[in-house]
Amino acid sequence: FNFSQAVQVGQTLYLSGSIGLDPKTGQFAGDGVQEQARQSLKNLGEVLKAAGASYKNVVKTNVFLQDMNDFAAMNEVYSEIFTDRHPARSTVQVAGLPKNARVEIEAIAVLGDIQEE
Hints:
Belongs to the RutC family. GO terms for molecular function: deaminase activity. InterPro entries: RidA, RidA_CS, RutC-like_sf, YjgF/YER057c/UK114. It holds the Pfam family Ribonuc_L-PSP. By secondary structure, this protein is α+β, with helices and mostly antiparallel strands. It has one domain (about 5-110): CATH 3.30.1330.40. It is about 25% helix and about 30% strand. The chain has a five-stranded mixed beta sheet, with helices on one face. Helix 2 links the parallel strand 3 (about 60-65) and strand 4. Helix 1 (about 35-50) packs parallel to helix 2. The longest helix has 18 residues, at about 35-50. It is globular and about 35 Å long.
């Protein structure tokens, strides 16, 4: 693929979109939006960790859904990860995602201390 998992500019880390593929198997974590969202967020967590960050450093996410009817189910999983701090978020329905994924999530993180307004 011709993209980076993340690019750091100054203290800002831009994370590429992640779908629910298990990096060990190359297969989706499951057919449902919750399994795919959970794996997508886990994948993002690994990229954050590699950059010396965590979910607490995330300030913005974009969530792309194949079907907006999956919003509540995706949001349940999202809320398991972002418990204390809730980053700014946009969620949109799209016509299609790679490998016919149900959900893709991208993020922006700020390294160092974060202050929520």
